[in-house]
Amino acid sequence: MTRPKILIAFYSRNGSTEELALAVAEGARVAGAEVRLRRAREMVGPEIMAMAPGWAEGAALMNEKYEAPTAEDAVWADAIIFGTPTRFGSIASELKAYIDGLGGVWFQGRLNGKFGGVFGSTSTKHGGNESTLLSIYNVMAHLGLIIVPLGYSHPALFKAGTPYGATFISQNDSQKPGEDDLAVARYQGERIALLARKVVDAADESTSLSA
């Protein structure tokens, strides 16, 4: 049985979105998936990063842990799960820059039919979590991904997250994701990985029958 391949491409500055990404990866691995965790890179120079205390240091630490996402990663994957903090109710420019760089493989049709999901975080209540996730639904549709919402298909979703994907509110970076938030994220990774596995298994069976 072939393991489904999951790309988790995310951007995180202060660690909240990173923690969700790790939980998504954990859930996907529980479902038997091979996971690539990739962090999008900053688009500004050190002089801008220096204006926000801890930004440069945090970025350096995370960049040591995670490779930058590539177009090859997206082609490799059976499912792509994007993670982003909210920026004025929409996607962070760092992650959007990575997605915009997928134009070549998109044009070749190499992303069509892959599963897609999204998760995110924001600093404040009503800070745009749902609008951010929904804005990426538009992007995933253009890429040709099969969008996988969560609905209310798990008990954890009655305590945290959204029907569109896992979310977290950091209260101006004073809090870290709790168990309810992480449970939704783990479920999201598991749910998408299980769907991808069904497709991979069907493809393997079809290949075997035609051999």
From TrEMBL:
<dbReference type="InterPro" id="IPR008254">
    <property type="entry name" value="Flavodoxin/NO_synth"/>
</dbReference>
<keyword id="KW-0521">NADP</keyword>
<comment type="similarity">
    <text>Belongs to the WrbA family.</text>
</comment>
<dbReference type="InterPro" id="IPR005025">
    <property type="entry name" value="FMN_Rdtase-like_dom"/>
</dbReference>
<keyword id="KW-0520">NAD</keyword>
<dbReference type="InterPro" id="IPR010089">
    <property type="entry name" value="Flavoprotein_WrbA-like"/>
</dbReference>
<dbReference type="GO" id="GO:0003955">
    <property type="term" value="F:NAD(P)H dehydrogenase (quinone) activity"/>
</dbReference>
<dbReference type="GO" id="GO:0016020">
    <property type="term" value="C:membrane"/>
</dbReference>
<feature type="domain" description="Flavodoxin-like">
    <location>
        <begin position="6"/>
        <end position="192"/>
    </location>
</feature>
<protein>
    <submittedName>
        <fullName>NAD(P)H dehydrogenase</fullName>
    </submittedName>
</protein>
<keyword id="KW-0547">Nucleotide-binding</keyword>
<keyword id="KW-0288">FMN</keyword>
<keyword id="KW-0560">Oxidoreductase</keyword>
<dbReference type="InterPro" id="IPR029039">
    <property type="entry name" value="Flavoprotein-like_sf"/>
</dbReference>
<dbReference type="Pfam" id="PF03358">
    <property type="entry name" value="FMN_red"/>
</dbReference>
<dbReference type="GO" id="GO:0010181">
    <property type="term" value="F:FMN binding"/>
</dbReference>
<keyword id="KW-0285">Flavoprotein</keyword>
